[in-house]
Amino acid sequence: MRRDVFQAIADPTRRAIIGMVAHRSLNLNTIAEHFEVSRPAISKHIKILTECGLVVVRQRGRERYCEARLQQLREVSDWIEQYRAFWNAKLDALDDFLALEQTTPSPKKKK
Q1: How far apart are CA 31 and CA 15, in angstroms?
Q2: Burial level of 37, CB count in 10 A (0-12/13-18/19+)?
Q3: How far apart are CA 97 and CA 42, in angstroms?
Q4: Where does the HTH arsR-type domain start and stop, copy by copy (predicted)?
Q5: How is 61-82 classified by DSSP, letter by letter?
Q6: What confidence score (pLDDT) does residue 110 get?
Q7: Looking at the whole model, is its pTM more than 0.70?
Q8: What spatial distance separates the first Cα and last Cα of the chain, rounded to whole Å?
Q9: What is the mean pLDDT of residues 35-55?
């Protein structure tokens, strides 16, 4: 089953694992040492990360090492970018409006 990359980043443990293996390849035991959950629970998280293509597990001797494949995060970045562009345009319009308000004299009230 191919999982969605959004499922992978929805969980804080999986985000932490991605952060760890983004810098260097780590074996499963080293990853598990950083969490207060069981080794099988970490293996399930790794399996989900593997199914969505964010992590590749390679056998080296008796150890299994996890390597990041962060290209899949492009999908998340593209999705976020549409909202970044939307909000940047809205905030720029607000900035223009406020600048205009500050330079335009307000009408005097009649007493």
Answers
A1: 12
A2: exposed
A3: 51
A4: 1-88
A5: TTEEEEEE-GGGHHHHHHHHHH
A6: 63
A7: yes
A8: 74
A9: 94
